[in-house]
Specification:
Chain A: This is Annexin D4-like. Chain A: GO terms for molecular function: calcium ion binding; calcium-dependent phospholipid binding; phosphatidylserine binding. Chain A: It holds the Pfam family Annexin. Chain A: InterPro entries: Annexin (IPR001464), Annexin_repeat (IPR018502), Annexin_sf (IPR037104). The complex is a heterodimer of chains A (about 325) and B (about 325). With about 325 residues, chain A is mainly α. Chain A contains 19 helices and two strands. The relative contact order of chain A is 0.11. Chain B has about 325 residues and is mostly helical. In chain B, helix 2 packs parallel to helix 19, helix 4 packs antiparallel against helix 5 and helix 18 packs antiparallel against helix 19. The longest helix of chain B is centred in the middle third of the chain and has 16 residues. Chain B starts with 12 loop residues before the first helix and ends with a helix. Classes of the chains: A mainly alpha (about 325), B mainly alpha (about 325). The interface between A and B is medium-sized, with 30 and 30 residues.
């Protein structure tokens, strides 16, 4: 059977319905199609025949795929989500994100991201908001709901109130770089993520101190600690977030815009742009350019649609 | 309730500074005058005096006192003048510098202060020592103690009254299980004690008592020399009734061969404006002696006068 001829008009509507990839939906194009196809049910029939993911032939008509309707719910909601999150107090945003991670199966590195890229006062604020919203402390819920061996690391990360000044003890940074190397390279009884020294250093030292530590690590051992950590979940993200949030965020954005990204990975785009718009958006764009040789705004433009795209570009733009 | 007595109308900070200056002048120091002023000013007033002194004489009042006073009296006065969060930060730092498993000052501070007070302590600690409190606790402790103390000083407990009854029951069971296995440093024990709200823990300890026929503390007395068990019991007692715990600290400090001035100074200067009245009442009930009488018997000189002024001489 020959595939249905997809007219240009149809293709435009399919694209607007997020049928050709991209995040969000093109509200304007959809509304304009409504107008253009008034009293032309045959055009809509043609759409249904051409739009393979959304509709399937069922006897004498084409019916909707429930999966696609669910998918559309998410895509239409991207604009709503970004606007609500934008309006929300940053503390509440962070508290709600952590709560989501704990109560739905969401990746734990979101907790690492929040704990390590916010300032000490912002993290305290998130903990205050968590009290108010959920009547538990943030660390109590992380401790209770994260049952695998990441629990200790995560509880300590969210409980940190790091010193934010520039005073650094160079000898200590040096010796702690060595301690980290030794922990990584010496196979122990417990997993690396449960290693007390690793946890102590990563969850209590100030960020400036840790950056010096990581620098010394690379100079002494030839590879960055990140490379040596390889696939160590949570630990790798911890080091990345503490060392350079812009680099980390540019990676997250890149993953979100890749083909075949899953729902959570795609949702990260909203989270990153909204939470960093007023913080280090400029640095993230620079990091993105350095890492991927493209301008972030161009990539966003190409891979997102409609009001969602406009919102992202407004937040990420100058 | 506070036990210090502050007159309804006090002299201005500038006048107080002048009097203090007079107390320093010449040979010797008029400690009595110092006590009569400083022991009768609230934290806010002491802050004003400190600021006024710095302005008038380009010197921190603490430095001036350091030059004039000595030993236990000096230590008590210097602690007293600090803002409560800074005071706790200094005490925490001191406890860490000479930390040993038997040192429970850190536990006392971390558990008897409110969540917000503890955060103010952490802020003051950073301001003064240019490191975070938890970083120093982690660096100066090890093993099970580190696993217990770092979360303890980092916690930001929910302070509401809500209690999840089934959770209290199940966590009482978990505690009982781990204690029975003698796994005192188990991460579940630490998780429960260092993250749950005080109201929740209160309910959990009650359930323990109801479910197993005796208080949880009793099951932690298997080895009287085990400092870790002692630490766990201290945490629980500070949660159940901080005033009773503090009364015991004071009582032991006084009864020791020679007095433990460190502990005495710490508890009195940090609690005089908070709940010293309640502590005194418990002391009297427990020992049939008024605390100020006990202090007069056991301490001497200006140190004695200062402590007695802080705790008040009413019954």
């Amino acid at each position: 059977m020959a595939l249905p001829l997809v007219t240009e008009e149809c293709e435009a509507v399919i694209r607007a319905f997020s049928g050709l990839g991209g995040l969000g939906v093109d509200e304007k194009a959809l509304v304009s199609a409504l107008g253009k196809w008034r009293r032309q049910p045959e055009k809509r029939a043609q759409l249904r025949k051409s739009f393979v993911g959304f509709f399937t032939a069922d006897g004498s008509f084409e019916r909707c795929e429930d999966d696609y309707i669910r998918y559309l719910k998410n895509e239409f909601a991207r604009f709503k989500n970004i606007m609500v999150l934008w309006a929300m107090h940053p503390w509440e945003r962070d508290a709600r994100w952590v709560h989501h991670v704990l109560h739905k199966p969401l990746p734990l590195d979101i907790i690492v991201e929040i704990a390590c890229t916010r300032s000490s006062e912002e993290l305290l604020g998130a903990r205050k908001a968590y009290h108010a919203l959920f009547h538990h402390s943030l660390e109590e819920d992380v401790a209770y709901h994260v049952r695998e061996n990441y629990s200790n690391l995560l509880v300590r990360l969210v409980s940190a109130y790091r010193y934010e000044g520039n005073r650094i003890n160079k000898e200590m940074a040096t010796s702690e770089a060595e301690a980290l190397y030794s922990a990584i390279k010496t196979p122990g009884v417990k997993k690396l993520v449960e290693n007390e020294e690793v946890i102590r250093i990563l969850t209590t030292r100030s960020k400036p101190h840790l950056r010096v530590t990581f620098k010394h690590y690379k100079e002494k051992y030839g590879k960055s600690i990140e490379e040596h950590l390889g696939d160590e979940l949570c630990l790798r993200e911890t080091v990345q977030c503490l060392d350079s949030p812009p680099k980390y965020f540019s990676k997250v954005i890149n993953k979100a815009l890749k083909d075949g990204a899953d729902k959570n990975t795609k949702d990260a785009l909203t989270r990153v742009i909204v939470s960093r718009a007023d913080v280090d958006m400029k640095e993230i764009k620079e990091a993105y350019h350095q890492q991927y040789g493209a301008e972030l705004e161009d990539v966003i433009s190409k891979n997102t649609l409609g009001s969602y795209r406009d919102a992202l570009l407004s937040l990420a733009g100058q | 309730m506070s036990t210090i007595s502050v007159a309804v109308s006090v002299p201005s900070p500038a006048e107080d500074c002048e009097q203090l200056r007079k107390a320093f002048q010449g040979w010797g120091t008029n400690e009595g005058l110092i006590i009569s002023i400083l022991a009768h000013r609230s934290a806010a007033q002491r802050r004003q005096i400190r600021d006024a002194y710095a302005q008038a004489h380009s010197e921190d009042l603490l430095k001036a006192l350091d030059k004039e006073l000595t030993r236990d009296f000096e230590k008590a006065v210097l602690l007293w003048i600090l803002d409560p969060p800074e005071r706790d930060a200094v005490l925490a730092n001191e406890a860490l510098k000479k930390w040993s498993p038997g040192n429970r000052a850190l536990i006392e501070i971390a558990v008897t202060r409110t969540a917000d007070e503890m955060f103010a302590v952490r802020r003051a600690y950073q301001g003064r020592f240019k490191r975070s409190l938890e970083e120093d606790v982690a660096a100066h402790t090890n093993g099970d103690f580190r696993k217990l103390l770092v979360p303890l000083v980092s916690s930001y407990r929910y302070e509401g009254p809500e209690v999840n009854a089934s959770l209290a029951k199940s966590e009482a069971k978990i505690l009982h299980e781990k204690i029975n296995e003698k796994a005192y440093g188990h991460e579940e024990i630490i998780r429960i004690l260092t993250t749950r709200s005080k109201a929740q823990l209160f309910a959990t300890f009650n359930d323990y008592n109801n479910g197993f026929g005796h208080p949880i503390n009793k099951d932690l007395k298997s080895d009287p020399k085990d400092d870790f068990l002692f630490a766990l019991r201290a945490i629980m007692r500070c949660i159940i009734c901080p005033e009773r715990y503090l009364e015991k600290v004071i009582r032991l400090a006084i009864n020791k061969m020679g007095t433990d001035e460190c502990a005495l100074t710490r508890v009195i200067t940090t609690r005089a404006e908070v709940n010293m009245k309640h502590i005194k009442e418990i002391y009297y009930k427990r020992n049939s002696v008024r605390l100020d009488h006990a202090l007069k018997k056991d301490t001497t000189g200006d140190y004695e006068d200062f402590l007695v002024a802080l705790i008040g001489q009413d019954a």
